[in-house]
Amino acid sequence: MITLIAIGALVATLLGGIFALRLRDKLHLILGFSAGAVIAVAFFDLLPESLDIGAGFYSNSTLLTITAIGFIIYLVLDRVVFLHAHAHDEVDVHSSEIGMVGSDGREHDVHHPSRGILGAGSLSVHSFLDGIAIGLAFQVSSAVGLIVAIAVLVHDFSDGINTVSMILKNEGSRKQAFCWLIVDACAPVIGIIATLFFTVPAQGLAIIIALFAGFFLYIGASDLIPESHHAHPKFLTTFMTVLGVAVLYVAIHVIQ
């Protein structure tokens, strides 16, 4: 089962990247769905599972605090360590604060290839952590592992999209984008394989799952939702986010 999941993660990432290369004008809808999916997993699966597993070891308040810490940890890694940034963030800064205006009187985007590489690299680290999440979830049970895998597969699809977009938006070539897509696609497989060499006791798993709930909340709320809504009609992207929540809610309860 876990081997098939690893292959699925690799394929999902590749498909997302190929989708981005071919249908870039529809990316906001896919990202909106992904945002709802990862947030749904955090609220409807990871948090309840953490509370159930950790019931004999920690209070609910402690585990919820750990989830908040996970959110903050990922924020720090994202903004300080990984230097993760979206191309449109840079454009907004340069156009609104620096005022880059061309001879035609209109503002122009400013891109740097190094920022694209840093963004793609950070997304690959994200994918590696996704693989770790799948492997640890399967240590709890097959049902939990499958739930987390579903969320990760959806997220990996969006990771593939984002990886390609980060390179292309920052003056990278299609060849560079595809190379980074391969790296990102292999990252969750490596993460899954790594968890085959160690196990975690129940009290440790409760903490780890709570941390990953915080991670998923950050990815969905602070990364995917803003990316999906940037410069696009809000109704359709909002609908796709709600649809993502609904689909994962149903999937979680059907599997459980």
| Annotation field: number of helices | 9
Rounded Rg: 18 Å
Distance between the termini: 17 Å
Structural class: mainly alpha
Number of domains: 1
Globally, the shape reads globular
Number of strands: 0
Fraction of residues in β-strands: under 5%
The run of helices and strands is HHHHHHHHH
Strand count, sense and barrel status of the largest sheet are:
none
What is the helix fraction of residues, given as a range?
over 70%
Mean pLDDT score, rounded?
75
Low-confidence stretches: 84-111
Would you write up a description of this structure?
This protein is mainly alpha-helical and about 260 residues long. It has one domain (about 1-95, about 110-255). Helix content is about 80%, strand content about 0%.
Task: Set out the fold topology.
Blueprint (H helix, E strand, L loop, with lengths): L1 H21 L4 H27 L6 H22 L5 H12 L14 H28 L1 H28 L4 H21 L7 H28 L4 H22 L1
Helix pairs in contact: 1-5, 1-6, 1-7, 2-6, 2-8, 2-9, 3-8, 5-6, 5-7, 5-8, 6-7, 6-9
Structure in a nutshell:
This protein has nine helices and no strands. The chain has 256 residues and is an all-alpha fold.
